[in-house]
Structures are given as C-alpha cells and as structure tokens.
Task: structure prediction
Amino acid sequence: MANTPQRMLRLLSLLQHSRYWSGAELCERLEISPRTLRRDIDRLRELGYPVHATPGAHGGYQLEAGTAMPPLLLDGEEAVAVAISLRTAAGGSVAGIEETSVRALAKLEQVLPAHLRRRVSTLQDYTVPITAPGPVADPECLMVIAQACRDRERLRFGYATRDGAESSRFVEPYRLVHVARKWYLMAWDLKRDDWRTFRVDRLTAPYPTGERFGPRELPAEDVAAYVAESITSSLARYRALITFHAPLARIAERIRPRDGILTEVDEDTCMLRTAADSLQWLALTVGMFDVEFEVHEPPELIAYIRMLSGRLDRAVSGGGG
Result:
C-alpha cells in the first residue's frame, strides 16, 4: 500500500478521471480497505474537494462542483497540453476567451517544471498560427455540451439552420468536433431517429435534461472524418465514391479529415467517400495520389474524367486542336 499522500493523489486522479466510482472499484484500484477509503475521502473534503457519497450496498463516490475550485491534479503530458491550448486560444474560435486564457496560462506556467516549460515554449516559438475571421462559439455553451457528452446525458437546445429556420432539438450528444475553425456537435437526434451534425455557433440555450442514455453503434470509426464528410456533403453539389488500388495508409498520408471518409477494403485496396462543388476539383483530387483507381459515382465525374482522358491523350499524341 502506498503512503497516505501518494494514495490520496492517486484517489484524486481517479475521481477526476471519471464522474462516478463505486466504493468497491476504488478499493480495488487503490488496494485499500473501505475504512481507509472513507478516511481518505474525508481528507479530500477537508482540502476543499467536494466528494459526494452515495450510500448503500451499491453506493459510490463522485467529484462534484463546489463553491471554490480546488487544485487540479495534472500529469506532465496533461499540463503541457493545457498550456499549449491556452497559448493558442487567443487565435482560436471560442469567443471572449483570450484574456481569460492569458491569466490561466500565467498561473499554470508559474508552477510548471523547467523541462515542461521548455517543451511548451519550443513548440510555441516554432509555430506560426494562421488566423482567419469566422464564426465563434460561446465557451459556456461548449462546456455544457462537453459535460453532457461526458455524462451521457440527453440535451435540449434551439437550433437555426443555414437558411435561418429555427427549431427545438432533443439529442443524445456524443462528441464535439473542431473542423475548419468551426465547432460541431455530433449527436443522435431523437426526433429524427438518426445521427446529425450541428454547428455550435447556431445552437442556443443548451441544457441537460437529467436523462441518461446508453451507447449506440457509431456511424463511423473515425468521428472527425465522419463529421467533416457530412459537412462537406451537405454543402457540395457532387458526392463521389472512389476505390484506390493502394493500401489505406498510403492514401491516408495525403488527405485531411475534411476531405472525406477513407475506409479499408483489404490490405491492398481502400475506398474514399468525398464531395465537392466542382468536377474539376474531384478529378484533381483522385488523380493526385498517383495510383490506379476506379470512380463508382457520380456519373458526371465518370463522364468528366473520360473527357479529360481524351484531352490528355490528344495533348501528348499531337492531335490537340
């Protein structure tokens, strides 16, 4: 058994990692008795950590919000990730967070060990951000959604579509995804009985209902790619399906998540679902990989590539006009 300070730090880390732990699970993880666990919980409360206990045979513990924020327990990698995120927040897409980020960063870097400060500074010194105007998301709104995703709690909110039509949505939130400087919520829409993607900057007054939900089978393994493809497809004129006669890893090196969804057919073949407004752009996209490929749809792209193939053939055979 670890000594008391080490054990309490481990206990605090577990409570911060997951919303709820049963007493039996904590005792097993920490290799302590229920009596020792109760004493350690009391010590955490004395330090300002609001640990709520549920009595009974199936009771447990969870870390709740209190009147003041006690110290967070971060490992080295987590601290570096937070510091880098705060440094880049001023040029990000979350509204009104710049000044707050600077204050939080000052507090964090004051206590970072020297070797971690050097890691953060090195990355920042050699990174040049590209900023552009665009829609911003309310940080409070993002936090409400993220907590609902974490706790698997159903969510209600108002939503405005691209054309300004407003509606009320009732969803099971799964993930927040940041694509092309915009925040999106991927969720199961209970009224439409299907997966939907929502722009967070068009979303208003989200509130958790207190209703829990169980896991669902996801529409794709890569959530970011699925959201990016659904966004592109909803706006694009043409949707394409292409088979590449090359391993997935080779093609994946050349595309971004927002370019579409890439899936493996076998060890030598993969398939890309993508979309665009331009047949020229689609033809350029599939041709740049320098591998054999087959276009399954749309028919307009097939016809365009045939026309382009003839034009290129004439260009090298001297038959061009």
Observations:
- The mean pLDDT is 81.
- Residues 299-317 form the longest helix (19 residues).
